[in-house]
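Per-residue structure
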Amino acid sequence: MLVIGIIMVVPFVFMISASLKAPADVFVNPMQIIPENIYTLNYETIFNHKYYFQWYWNSFSTVVLTVIFRGFFVTMAAYAFARLSFPGKNILFLFLLSAMMIPHDTTIVAKFMLYKYMGLINTHWVIILPAAFDVFFIFLLRQFFMGIPKDLTESSLIDGASHFGIYFKIILPLAVPALITMGLFTFIWTWNDFITPFIFINDIDKQLVTVGLEYFQLEAGKNYALQMAGACLIVVVPIIIFAVLQKYFVQGIAMSGIKG
């Protein structure tokens, strides 16, 4: 495992090292991790780029709204499947699970036509609204909610609490690790998404940072040091968030996988 971990880290270390080298020195001695002379012009060029921080803000605001919308709708659906009884619940849940078997790429044309009809094309809502409902996280949180003792909800119902009250005051506070896990996955997946903004967003100033990096690479040409600097600035946000929330992430995965 240590050897595999080192192999996976090497490209990341090379990216950081190359971003601090002059363009002519990147492939002269690629395994020289620490450059003899730190070259900061790559980052200065990025900081002065016309759209780079606009792309950064577009990605950040889109990701935050996606996490909020998904957290609201997915948790309510998961609570309904875990605690409520209604006709056809199991059939509907199996139908939702079967939707996970459909490859994402096969629905792009249908999605484009639907989003165009709804007027979402070339807006950030084309990313936020479809991501608000995710079957995988409904399944994940349903398993977590089913692991919470039913006595808590049944006693609350006897005391006169509504399902919305139980959902907000009992279930959600107990499900913080699972919610953080969902939020972390959502943040990373949306932040790293390339296909969706590339297809559904047209204006360059509205693009997310992943697609913006592709345009940036076209402008930089064969300046690989500049490309590596741009890539480093993209990955720094997910790394920081994962480092801060790692404890809750592991706890949420463990509890949702064992219970239920």
Residues 144 and 256 are 5 Å apart (CA to CA). The chain is about 75% helix and 0% strand. Residues 224-258 form the longest helix (35 residues). The chain has a mean pLDDT of 83.
